[in-house]
């Protein structure tokens, strides 16, 4: 058994990449439990594996004490000195207690430990391998499908794609080759579990990086993505080089670059717009292909705005079932209220009329107040007149005198 065990450990280390010492440590711990279980022993025991010969030895560990209360755990100082005069109180002494038939138990335990370690090592290898692909694109083969998942083989592991990660315009058949985006990798008890998606926005980003060298090297940068998988997507790009047009570069000559991505996603339409620091201009770009006349920001809500478009462009700006406006709002992070030019003018005229009416009412109230002031002035004058008359009379009397 010793030679076979040593050979097995060498094979594990060479072919499976499992460290021999890790298996030996696990084997020794398992043999301690096996010894206590099979020989009804509860004392402190240690198992040592001879890596040169492959032999296994079991030792009972006892502490040197003055007075022995439990012979299974303690040994007297006098007895310890007969073994070796260098022992002192508190030292641990190992006494070999290897049973004669322990080899059979050791072989069974070794087999179980090795199989367990092989499974763990394979799970760790797969987890480490695919965890590196997290947030990246991989190509897999559809294996099967049920009501919850599409199962995609990635080689050594089977990935799962939930219903929310499946494209509504795609049908997945066995042996189909598909590009999927690895959203997360979990090291579960039953083995590594890889979750993939075809609807994630970052799948689109990785596809652009594959098709557009300028995006891959960072010359052109994807700033935002708004996507309704399988139907339409908007991508905002900017250039870090003033001599490079980000939109034209992303589209490619005669649209070849973006068309490759559209084909990969089953005909999903792409709107590529230029990202800019000017938020009003960016919002106008996001509503492409509609023409925008004006963007008015809401003073009471910093993330809301009103967009004015020509009358004939209103339906285009809103889009089918509001899709264009919805994607633009998601791309920019603004709540967008779209109005036609005539509607906006009518609202503005109504507001002006209301303001004028309010102003007129205020002026009328002021006018109504002025006669009262004049009356007071008249009253004052009428009250002063007798005083003047009295003064005149006094003056006349004096003259008469």
Helical content class: 40-55%
Instruction: Work out the number of β strands.
Output: 15
* The CATH C-level class name of the domain at 2-129: Alpha Beta
Range of strand content: 15-25%
CATH homologous superfamily grouping of the domain at 2-129: NusA, N-terminal domain
Task: Name the average pLDDT.
Answer: 81
Shape from CA axes?
A: elongated
* Structural class determined from secondary elements: alpha/beta
Architecture of the domain at 2-129, according to CATH?
2-Layer Sandwich
Oligomer: single chain
Radius of gyration computed on alpha carbons? 45 Å
Q: How do the SSEs run, as a string of H and E?
A: HHEEEHEHEEEEEHHEEHHEHEEHHEH
If strands are numbered along the chain, what order do they take across the biggest sheet?
5-6-7-9-8
* Number of helical regions: 12
Largest sheet: 5 strands, mixed, barrel
Keywords:
single chain, 401 residues, alpha/beta, N Utilization Substance Protein A, Chain:P, domain 4, OB fold (Dihydrolipoamide Acetyltransferase, E2P), GMP Synthetase, Chain A, domain 3, 5-stranded mixed β-barrel, 4-stranded mixed sheet, elongated, disordered C terminus, transcription, S1_domain, NusA_N_sf
Brief write-up:
46% of the residues lie in helices and 25% in strands. The chain is of the alpha/beta class and 401 residues long.
């Amino acid at each position: 058994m010793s030679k076979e065990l040593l050979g097995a450990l060498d094979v594990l280390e060479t072919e499976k990449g499992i460290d021999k010492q890790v298996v030996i440590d696990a084997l020794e711990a398992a043999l301690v439990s096996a010894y206590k279980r099979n020989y009804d022993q509860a004392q402190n025991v240690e198992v040592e594996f001879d890596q040169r010969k492959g032999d296994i030895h079991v030792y009972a560990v006892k502490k040197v004490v003055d007075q022995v209360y439990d012979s299974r755990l303690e040994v007297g100082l006098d007895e310890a000195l007969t073994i070796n005069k260098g022992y002192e109180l508190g030292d641990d002494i190992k006494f070999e207690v290897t049973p004669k038939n322990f080899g059979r138990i050791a072989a069974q335990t070794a087999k179980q430990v090795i199989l367990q370690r092989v499974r763990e090592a394979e799970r760790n290898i797969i987890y480490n391998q695919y965890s590196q692909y997290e947030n990246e694109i991989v190509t897999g083969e559809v294996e099967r499908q049920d009501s919850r998942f599409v199962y995609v083989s990635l080689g050594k592991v089977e990935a799962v794609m939930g219903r929310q990660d499946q494209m509504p315009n795609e049908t997945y058949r066995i042996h189909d080759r598909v590009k999927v985006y690895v959203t997360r990798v979990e090291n579960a008890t039953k083995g590594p579990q890889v979750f993939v998606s075809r609807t994630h926005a970052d799948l689109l980003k990785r596809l652009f990086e594959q098709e557009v060298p300028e995006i891959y090297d960072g010359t052109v940068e994807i700033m935002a993505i708004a996507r309704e998988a399988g139907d339409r997507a908007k991508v905002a790009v900017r250039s870090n080089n003033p001599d490079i047009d980000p939109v034209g570069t992303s589209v490619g000559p005669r649209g070849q670059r973006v068309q490759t991505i559209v084909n990969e996603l089953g005909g999903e339409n792409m709107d590529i717009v230029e990202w800019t620091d000017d938020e009003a201009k960016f919002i106008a770009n996001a509503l492409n292909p509609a023409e925008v006349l004006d963007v008015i920001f809401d003073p009471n809500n910093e993330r809301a705005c009103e967009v004015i478009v020509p009358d004939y462009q209103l339906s285009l700006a809103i889009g089918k079932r509001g899709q264009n406006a919805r994607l633009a709002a998601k791309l920019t992070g603004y709540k967008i209220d779209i109005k036609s030019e005539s509607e906006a003018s009518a609202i503005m005229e109504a507001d002006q009329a209301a303001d004028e009416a309010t102003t007129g009412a205020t002026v009328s109230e002021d006018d109504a107040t002025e006669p009262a002031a004049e009356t007071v002035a008249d009253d004052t004058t009428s009250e002063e007149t007798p005083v003047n008359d009295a003064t005149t009379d006094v003056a006349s009397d004096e003259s008469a005198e």
